[in-house]
Write a structure and sequence with these properties.
Number of strands: 18
Structural class: alpha/beta
Mean pLDDT: 81
Number of helices: 22
Shape: globular
Helix content: 25-40%
Strand order of the largest sheet: 4-5-6-7-8-9-10-11-12-13-14-15-16-17-18
Largest sheet: 15 strands, parallel
Radius of gyration: 28 Å
Distance between the termini: 45 Å
Strand content: 5-15%
C-alpha cells in the first residue's frame, strides 16, 4: 500500500524539545561526541545540552580552546599542562600576556558556575579570576570585610584545606560567619585542642548558629584528622571544651541542618541527651559524622536513646567512640532504619555479633559500609558479619588484618559461634531491646537456647541459603567499589580466602599500604599479590596508595631493601590486570623529602597495556616518563606532586615545566586507534 515514495520517519523528525531531553540524559562523553557528528542539528543540540567539559592539553595553546561549548556550567581544567604550575610560566611563552588564558576561558565558557583546577601556586587562581586571590590562612577575613556585599551573597564556603596544620582560629571563624550571614554550606578546618591558642570551644560553637542560622551543611573538622593517623589506642586522653549545653544550643539554632560533621579528635562526654535534641530540632538531618563522642547510644533497657532517635538518618559515621558496644550498635540499627551508609572506625567494644545483627536489621537499605581499626573485627570476621547484605552492598572498606589467615586456608562454614536461626528470627520480627539483650547474654541465658525457629525472612531475600545451618551465599553481586588498608609486610593474597573471592561486578578498588619499610625483613614472596585481583573480571580502576609507606630512597643499610626494590615487590603482577585508569602514590623517604617514581616501578607500570589514564601522585625523572609512551592507548598522564618538591633551579633531573611539555608533546604525537 505504501510505495517507495512514502517518506520515512526517523528520530531526527522528533520535536526539538523531546530531542533535547534525550540528549540531556546522556552522560557518556564518547556517545555525546558521536551524536554531535551525525548532522548539524544534532551537533547544535549536543552542544546546547552539554553542561560539563574537561579540558586537556597545554595552556600555551590558546588557539585550541574550544568555543562551541557556551552552555557548559561545570568546567574541569585540572588536566591542563604544565601540571600544578602557574600557567604560562613555561619558557615557551615567556613573552605572552598571562591574562590571555583567563580572558579566553571567560569568552569561551560564559556560563561556568563550577571550576576545577589543579594548582600549587595561587598565581593560577589569580590569572583565572582576574583578581588577587587571598591567602586563606591570614587574608580571608579582611577580604570579606572589604567586600561586604559579596560576603553577604556567599552561600557556600569550603575551607577544609590541608595546606596548613593549625586550621582557622576561633576568632577567624567567628569573623567569617558574622560577615557571611546567608551561608548555607560551611566547611572549616580548625583545632579543638584546648592546649592551642585559638581553639574551638563553647563560645565559637554558640556563635555559629547565631551568625548563620540558614546553615543546612556544617563541617567542623580537627586538622589532626587529615593525617589519617591509625592509633592503636584510638582515643585521646584530652577532653574538648565542649559542653552538653553548648551542643544543645548549637543543634537548636540550626533547624535547617541536613548534614553535620563534628570530627573533634578530643573527648566529648555525655552526648546522649544532646543527640536526642538533635533528632527533634533538626528533622531534616540526613548525614551525620561524629568523631570521639562518648555516650552516643547508652542502650539501657528497651528504650531508644541518643543517636538512635535520629530516625531520618541515611548516612552515619562513628569514629573512636570508646563506649559503643554491640547493644549500642543494635539500638542504632533499630532506630535509624533508613541507613544507606554506615562507617565504624576505632570502636574497640564492637564484635562480629553486634555488626552482624545490625546488618541483618538494615538489610533492606544498607549498601555502603566501612569498618576500620576495630580490634575485634579482622577481615574474615567483618566479611562474615556482612553476609546478610552480600547481594546488596555496593561499596565496602575493610582492613586487611589476617590474624594468621593464609591463602591455602579453607574457611568452611563453621565459624559462627552463635545461633543464626535465633538471630534471624530476632531480625525478622518486631522485638524490643530486651530480646536482643537476652540473646547477647542478658539475665535469662536460657531464653537464647530455647529459640529454635524457622527463618522469618521473605522469599525474595536471595542471600539466605536454606540449608539449616544459617550459611549465606558468597557472591557479592552488586559490589562495585572496594577499599582496602594493609600494613607493610603483609600480603594481599589471602583476600579471596577471607571471603571476597566472588565479586563479578567489581569496577574500582583502592589499596592503601601503610607502615615503615625500614627494619622490615625481606619479603619471602616475590610479589605483594596484585595478580590475585585478576579474579575480578570487571575491574578497570585502581588507586594504589603507598604515600604513607616510608623507607630508604637512596642506599639502604646492609640487610635492608631500598624503596626501588619495595616498589618492585609491590607492583609485580600488575600487568595481569586489565586496568583503564590508575592512580599511583609512590612510597616516600621523609628524611630527603622525596616521593619519586623508581626505575622498577616505571618498567612495571609500562606493562599495563590497557591503561588510558595514569595519575602519579609524586614526581619522576623525565626519561622514566617516556617509558609510558609504549602503552598503546594511553591518553591522559599527569604528575601530581603531593609533597614539597625540589625548586626549579635544583640540579636534579626530576620533572619540571619544560619536561612536562616535552613529554606531553610526545604523547600527543602518537596515533591512538580509537
Amino acid at each position: 500500500m505504501g510505495g517507495n515514495n512514502e517518506a520515512t520517519t526517523t528520530v531526527s523528525h522528533l520535536p526539538e524539545e523531546i530531542l533535547s531531553k534525550v540528549f540531556a540524559s546522556i552522560n557518556d562523553t564518547r556517545t555525546r561526541n558521536s551524536l554531535s557528528l551525525v548532522c548539524r542539528s544534532f551537533f547544535r543540540l549536543e552542544r546546547k545540552t552539554r553542561t560539563s567539559l574537561t579540558l586537556r592539553g597545554n595552556a600555551r595553546d590558546l588557539h585550541l580552546i574550544p568555543t562551541s561549548f557556551t552552555h557548559v556550567t561545570h568546567l574541569d581544567a585540572s588536566l591542563l599542562s604544565p601540571w600544578g604550575h602557574a600557567l604560562f610560566c613555561s619558557s615557551f611563552t615567556a613573552t605572552a600576556d598571562p591574562r590571555l588564558l583567563a580572558l579566553r576561558l571567560r569568552d569561551a565558557f560564559p556560563r561556568v558556575t563550577s571550576l576545577t583546577v589543579y594548582a600549587r601556586d595561587p598565581t593560577t587562581l589569580q590569572l583565572l579570576l582576574l583578581s588577587p586571590w587571598p591567602e586563606l590562612r591570614h587574608d580571608l577575613p579582611p577580604v570579606l570585610a572589604a567586600n561586604p556585599v559579596a560576603a553577604a551573597s556567599l552561600r557556600r564556603l569550603n575551607l577544609l584545606t590541608t595546606s596548613f596544620t593549625e586550621g582557622f582560629k576561633s576568632h577567624e571563624i567567628e569573623s567569617i560567619t558574622s560577615l557571611c550571614p546567608n551561608l548555607e554550606h560551611l566547611l572549616v578546618a580548625c583545632t579543638f585542642d584546648p592546649r592551642y591558642i585559638g581553639f574551638v570551644g563553647d563560645e565559637t560553637l554558640l556563635m555559629i548558629p547565631s551568625n548563620c542560622p540558614k546553615l543546612s551543611l556544617l563541617h567542623l573538622v580537627d586538622t589532626s584528622s587529615f593525617s589519617n593517623r591509625r592509633d592503636d589506642e584510638g582515643f585521646s586522653g584530652e577532653d574538648a571544651r565542649i559542653s552538653r549545653t553548648t551542643l544543645v544550643a548549637l543543634f537548636s539554632g540550626l533547624p535547617l541542618l541536613e548534614e553535620l560533621v563534628l570530627d573533634v579528635c578530643k573527648n566529648v562526654s555525655e552526648s546522649s541527651f544532646a543527640l536526642e535534641v538533635l533528632s527533634s530540632k533538626c528533622p531534616k538531618l540526613k548525614v551525620l559524622k561524629l568523631g570521639q563522642f562518648q555516650g552516643i547510644c547508652l542502650a539501657i533497657g528497651s528504650r531508644l536513646d541518643g543517636i538512635a532517635l535520629c530516625q531520618g538518618l541515611q548516612s552515619l559515621s562513628v569514629n573512636s567512640c570508646p563506649d559503643l558496644d554491640d547493644m549500642g550498635l543494635i539500638e542504632i540499627a533499630r532506630g535509624c532504619s533508613r541507613l544507606v551508609k554506615f562507617e565504624l572506625q576505632g570502636c574497640k567494644l564492637v564484635t562480629e555479633k553486634g555488626l552482624r545483627t545490625m546488618t541483618c536489621l538494615l538489610r533492606r537499605t544498607l549498601i555502603d559500609v566501612k569498618v576500620s581499626c576495630c580490634v575485634n573485627l579482622d577481615t574474615a570476621a567483618t566479611l562474615r558479619a556482612l553476609e546478610p547484605i552480600r547481594d546488596r552492598i555496593e561499596r565496602l572498606h575493610v582492613d586487611c588484618v589476617w590474624n594468621g589467615l593464609r591463602e591455602s586456608d579453607n574457611l568452611g562454614r563453621g565459624f559462627l559461634n552463635f545461633d543464626l536461626n535465633a538471630l534471624d528470627e530476632l531480625c525478622s520480627s518486631d522485638v524490643d531491646g530486651a530480646d536482643f539483650m537476652d540473646y547477647f547474654g542478658g539475665e535469662d541465658m536460657s531464653k537464647r537456647k530455647r529459640q529454635r525457629c524457622r527463618y522469618g525472612l521473605e522469599a525474595d531475600d536471595s542471600f539466605v541459603q536454606s540449608n539449616g545451618n544459617g550459611y549465606y551465599g558468597k557472591s557479592w553481586d552488586r559490589l562495585r567499589y572496594l577499599s582496602l588498608w594493609i600494613r607493610v609486610g603483609d600480603l594481599l593474597t589471602p583476600l579471596p580466602v577471607a571471603g571476597l573471592e566472588d565479586c563479578p561486578n567489581l569496577e574500582e578498588i583502592r589499596i592503601k599500604v601503610e607502615g615503615d619499610c625500614r627494619g622490615q625483613p625481606k619479603p619471602s614472596e616475590s610479589e605483594f599479590g596484585l595478580s590475585i585481583l585478576a579474579c575480578y573480571p570487571q575491574l578497570s580502576k585502581m588507586q594504589l596508595d603507598f604515600g604513607d609507606t616510608k623507607g630508604y630512597v637512596l642506599t639502604a643499610p646492609s640487610g635492608q631493601m631500598d624503596l626501588s626494590l619495595w616498589e618492585r615487590f609491590f607492583l609485580n603482577g600488575i600487568s595481569s590486570l586489565s586496568l583503564n585508569e590508575l592512580h599511583y602514590w609512590p612510597p616516600q623517604d621523609e628524611d630527603v623529602n622525596q616521593r619519586s617514581l623508581s626505575l622498577p616501578a616505571a618498567g612495571l607500570l609500562q606493562e599495563c597495556y590497557t591503561l588510558r589514564k595514569l595519575f602519579i601522585h609524586g614526581t619522576a625523572h623525565e626519561h622514566f616518563m617516556f617509558f609510558f609512551l609504549k602503552i598503546p592507548n594511553l591518553r591522559d598522564v599527569q604528575l601530581r606532586e603531593d609533597y614539597y618538591p625540589a625548586p626549579e633551579n635544583d640540579m636534579s633531573t626530576e620533572m619540571r615545566v619544560g619536561s612536562c611539555s616535552r613529554f606531553e608533546d610526545a604523547l600527543n604525537r602518537r596515533r591512538i586507534c580509537d
